Amino acid sequence: MIFEELLAEMNIHTVTIPEYCYHFDQTKLKSGSSLYYNFFIDDKEVSFRQKGKEIDIKIPYIFSASSKEIARSKKDKEGIFFSLDITYNLSITLENEIMIEKELMNAFLNGVAPRILHPYFRQSVAESLQKAGLPQLNLPLFENFSEPLDS
User: Fold this and answer.
1) Hey, what long-range contacts does 65-70 have (CB within 8 A, 24 or more apart)?
2) So where are the chain's domains?
3) What CATH number is given for 3-131 in this structure?
């Protein structure tokens, strides 16, 4: 099966958010300081489960804002004044019962799923920053997705 055939078989059933947690530490926010932000998908926690025609995917995103440049790590919390951990569940139904090969699964998880979920993530970041009383930030459309979307 080629990638385009797999995509033609897929129908997104639901996108849900089972985990949505943000933390704002005002003591680390310095007046007049530069704002650096970082976001990424926590690859170690991504899951893909298929049962017949049903596919359940869990993709956790991590966003952080800091007054200094920070590493791409959940453990590096120095200088971070705002963090957001949000997990998305993507429920997909296949037209026909087919077993998805690991290579196609990885292509979907690394290329297509983040592009489906990124607009939801952008909105969640904007809303969370607004709720915390922080300046507006609109994330770029596909930042941090270094691999082009190839079939």
Assistant:
1) 65/35, 65/36, 65/37, 65/129, 65/134, 65/137, 66/28, 66/35, 66/36, 66/37, 66/38, 67/28, 67/29, 67/30, 67/33, 67/34, 67/35, 67/36, 68/34, 68/36, 69/36, 70/36, 70/38
2) 3-131
3) 3.10.420.10
